[in-house]
Design goal:
Distance between the termini: 13 Å
Strand order of the largest sheet: 1-2-4-3
Shape: globular
Number of helices: 4
Length: 102
């Protein structure tokens, strides 16, 4: 799914009040991290992940590694916070609203 600028803006607005669920530390990307993010994003559709200051990973690199591993879209990277979106089959609340945006 390719996000248009209007859809991306809508998702940023919805994610504004969300707190990061996962934190990436010194270890950087791992399969366990990807699995945890995949499990968390399933029912939520929209989550934030924070990269800690002691982490030496490149934020864009780790963002797209996670997105590729879980089949999600990177909505935004602001500072050390990454927002991911993935359409849910179980509870498609945000997806239904997003489909109405052109």
């Amino acid at each position: 799914m390719n996000l248009t600028s209007k859809k991306r803006a809508f998702l940023k607005k919805r994610a504004h009040n969300l707190d990061p669920i996962f934190r990436i530390g010194k270890e950087g990307f791992s399969e366990a991290l990807a699995q945890g993010v995949a499990d968390a994003i399933g029912p939520r559709e929209l989550i934030k992940v924070k990269i800690l200051q002691n982490s030496e990973v490149e934020k864009k690199e780790v963002a797209y590694q996670i997105a590729d591993a879980i089949g999600a879209e990177v909505v935004s990277i602001i500072g050390r916070t990454i927002t991911f979106y993935k359409e849910s089959e179980e509870k498609p609340s945000i997806s239904l609203e997003l489909k109405g945006i052109k």
